[in-house]
Each structure stands twice: as structure tokens, then as C-alpha cells.
Amino acid sequence: MISSPPDFALRPARPDDAEAVLELIGPELHFGLDDIRNEWRSVDLERDTWAWEHGGRLAAFGILRSRGEELSVNGFVHPDFRGRGLGTAILQATEARARERDAWKLDNGILATDHAAAALLEASGYRDARHYFVMTIELEEPPPAPEWPAGLEPRPFEREHARAFHAADDEAFQDESGYESEPFEEFVERRLESPRFDPKLWTAVWDGDEIAAALIADWKRFGAGWIAGLAVRRPWRRRGLGRALLLRSFGQFYERDERRVSLSVHTENPSGATRLYERVGMRVEREEVLYQKELDAG
């Protein structure tokens, strides 16, 4: 049984709550209604979301998301209702549900500037695990044309190569701290069955019959063209593929009149991705912190 602070009614979120949830989310995250609805598409709203109401207003919202075996939380409290125990209620509800799902750890992401949330998480047994930059470029003019290494061929994504694409993307991220593989079936559901999926914005770089590198991009996510993944397999690194893929993607967005392109990157990415993004003109827009709690530790 999940308890709620006095004067607040607790229920699961409903699809028609999306607009009210958007009002809880700070403008610095650039969320839109489509971002919320797309996320909810793969979430069990009845069991994995929580909405606290006060006088007919949505005061707070929490959601438990899954990616493979990894569970993570997002929680938001309206400024009018902060300091009344709702943040703690979100943690209690999501942790209880994560334990029901036999999770051994739980992730919770916040903005680096949200010191109140950081204090609450640390007091509740979470530790600062990883930091990420959201980086953005404003395209004031067409980007330079990409230059591809000899013998390598960029092609749009083709469904028949979905498993090879997924395997190449997964392999390239194995070096990153905290990375957890996503099962192919979940990759298909989350990516290929998403209303946002546009194969023209995805690129596979082929070396003969092998995929050397891959880029995943989404149209209009978080207020921008969004590069959801850039992966270069180890044997093909240091050959300019990352830069070429970025410039190709920038050009595609520019042709669609999208002037703002963003991505998220681990601040300690072992392949030096942050420096690459800076060299192509991207700048840090905000920093996010991933907190983590081992649930077996209490």
C-alpha cells in the first residue's frame, strides 16, 4: 500500500493527463506532448505511473521506465506543492514497484542544478553514479558535406538489416561505463515501432558486408532534431566516421528546416565523444545527473 501526503489523492496516470504532466516539467528540458505520449506508449500506466492530485489539480507525477533489465524513474512536482512530501512519495512508490519487479537497483535522473532533488536522493540512499551533457547545435547555415573514408558506404537504415544494425550499435557502447544492452525485441518495440521512426534519418556505414558505424536520429524530440545514438565500432574508430555521420545528420535536419539538433553524451565517454561534438559546433546546454540505488541495500 502506497501512502500519500495529507490532502493529496493518489491514482495512476491516464492518457489524458499528458498536458497536465507537461505543465509540471521545467522548460529547460524542452519536453513536448509528443515526447510524453511516445514515452507512455511502452509503459504500463496502471502499474508504473503515479499521479497525485490536490483540489482537482495535478500536483506531482512519477513514472517507472524500463530498458532491458534496467529500471529508471522520472518524477516531477509542481512548484506550488514543493516541500510537502511529494518527492519522498515518488521515491517510495517507485522503489516499491521496482522491488515488485525484482529489480536490484534503480536509476533516477535529475538536472545537475536541482540541488533539492540531489539532497533528497542522497538522504534516501542514492549515490551520484554518472553525469551526462545535453549538447546542441544551432544550424545558422548548411553544414559542410561529410567526407567518408575510402571503401566505406553510408546507407539509410533497411529493415532487413535490423539485427545487424542493433548488434553494431550495442557493440560500440560496450566500453561506456554503466551501459546495459537492450534486447533486440525491445529495441524493435522502442525504436522501429515508434511513431517517430523514420528510416531516412538513420544511417548505417557499411564496410563490405559489415556495419562499421551507425547513427539513430529522431524527428522533433525534446524540441529539436534528436541524435539518439552514434556508434562507431572499435576497428573503425579514429577514421572520421563520427564526424561524417554527424554532418550527414545535421544536413538532413537542415533540409527539413530543423535548425536545432541535440544529443546526450556521458561526460566521461571513453571514446572522446564530447570533444568530437564540440569540434562540429555543438555546445553544452545542460548537465544531467544519474543517481542510483541498490535496492537490496535497503
What's the topology here?
Blueprint: E1 9-11, H1 18-24, H2 33-40, H3 45-48, E2 49-54, E3 57-67, E4 70-77, H4 86-100, E5 105-111, H5 115-123, E6 127-138, E7 153-156, H6 162-172, H7 184-192, E8 203-207, E9 210-221, E10 224-232, H8 241-255, E11 260-266, H9 273-279, E12 283-294
Parallel strand pairs: 4-5, 10-11
Antiparallel strand pairs: 1-2, 2-3, 3-4, 5-12, 6-11, 6-12, 7-8, 8-9, 9-10
CATH superfamily heading of the largest domain: Gcn5-related N-acetyltransferase (GNAT)
Number of helices: 9
- CATH second-level architecture of the largest domain: 3-Layer(aba) Sandwich
Which sequence of SSEs, written as H and E, runs from N to C?
A: EHHHEEEHEHEEHHEEEHEHE
- Whole-angstrom Rg: 20 Å
Label the structural class. Answer: alpha+beta
Describe this structure as you would to a colleague.
- There is one protein chain.
- With 298 residues, the chain is of the alpha+beta class.
- It has a 12-stranded mixed beta sheet.
- It has helices spanning 18-24, 33-40, 45-48, 86-100, 115-123, 162-172, 184-192, 241-255, 273-279, and strands at residues 9-11, 49-54, 57-67, 70-77, 105-111, 127-138, 153-156, 203-207, 210-221, 224-232, 260-266, 283-294.
- The mean pLDDT is 93.
- It has 9 helices and 12 strands.
- It is elongated, with a radius of gyration of 20 Å.
- It folds into 2 domains: 9-103, Gcn5-related N-acetyltransferase (GNAT) (Aminopeptidase); 136-289, Gcn5-related N-acetyltransferase (GNAT) (Aminopeptidase, 3-Layer(aba) Sandwich), CATH 3.40.630.30.
